[in-house]
Amino acid sequence: MFTDFHCALTWLKDKHIIKKAAVAAAHDIDVLTSVVSARREGILDAVLIGDAGKIRSYLEQLGEKTDQWEIVDEQNEVQAARHTAVLVAEKKVDMPMKGLLQTSTFLKALLDKSLGLIAENGLISQITVFHYPQASRLMLVTDCAINVAPDYSKKLKIMQNAVSLCHKLGIDKPKVAVIAPLELVNPDIQATSDAAMLTLANMRGQIKNCIVDGPLGFDNAVSLAAARHKGIESKVAGYADILLMPDLGAGNILDKSLRYFAGYQTAGVVAGGKVPIIATSRSDSAENKLNSIVLSVLQSL
């Protein structure tokens, strides 16, 4: 089991695993810093699509020789996203990476049905992975950026995407906490009903390869002391690997709180497609973008 991002990076290097990404709107210093770092670590090669002048300028600032990089001059972000998606569909690269452009523009290109990058009945979802230093382990929060108000069926697919990523991280039977405002089922709060149904489906063997419990409040999902104080007996409470959020608003706020309040290292990936999708926030640090590359390379295996 990988306990942090550096551990995962070291494993990839030891296995001599290298993948190739197409970066849409690559003219951003933090994006290029992460891509250059990944290339120097020997885990990634890349096609850089965007404002060629800015890309070359930033590469030079980073001490790179620009003639050693594949650069495509495309200053229109819609066309840059389209070019990226086509390269992935034609299997000329292994995965797409979002640069300095809107997430909606980036994903719209990838979701074009004619390219076949998403399974017919599939659902893509965003997963934020963070290093939880107090427990020396990685944890997942989902969905923080794509599915706005998922119903039961979508939450099931979002959960399955996160469970699959956990397996890549070496967590054989991840514990899933289905988060809600309170621990009791309240018909007026749909998140509690969804959580109870997911838990029951898991108990009956309809959801496999994980342990699910909910509804759980955020406090007792992550704190064993809080769970015990409330008299909650659970294999998940205090030990959660995955925090399945009730909606995008809650997930997005928690995602940003982990970075800006707690200062945790994070990675943002998109799961559920036929290939990993590196889709970090434009405000993410170069370090967090590198973490996202590491996990996406791992996810592709």
TrEMBL record:
<feature type="domain" description="Phosphate acetyl/butaryl transferase">
    <location>
        <begin position="56"/>
        <end position="296"/>
    </location>
</feature>
<dbReference type="InterPro" id="IPR002505">
    <property type="entry name" value="PTA_PTB"/>
</dbReference>
<keyword id="KW-0012">Acyltransferase</keyword>
<dbReference type="InterPro" id="IPR050500">
    <property type="entry name" value="Phos_Acetyltrans/Butyryltrans"/>
</dbReference>
<comment type="similarity">
    <text>Belongs to the phosphate acetyltransferase and butyryltransferase family.</text>
</comment>
<protein>
    <submittedName>
        <fullName>Phosphate acetyltransferase</fullName>
        <ecNumber>2.3.1.8</ecNumber>
    </submittedName>
</protein>
<dbReference type="Pfam" id="PF01515">
    <property type="entry name" value="PTA_PTB"/>
</dbReference>
<dbReference type="InterPro" id="IPR012147">
    <property type="entry name" value="P_Ac_Bu_trans"/>
</dbReference>
<dbReference type="GO" id="GO:0008959">
    <property type="term" value="F:phosphate acetyltransferase activity"/>
</dbReference>
<keyword id="KW-0808">Transferase</keyword>
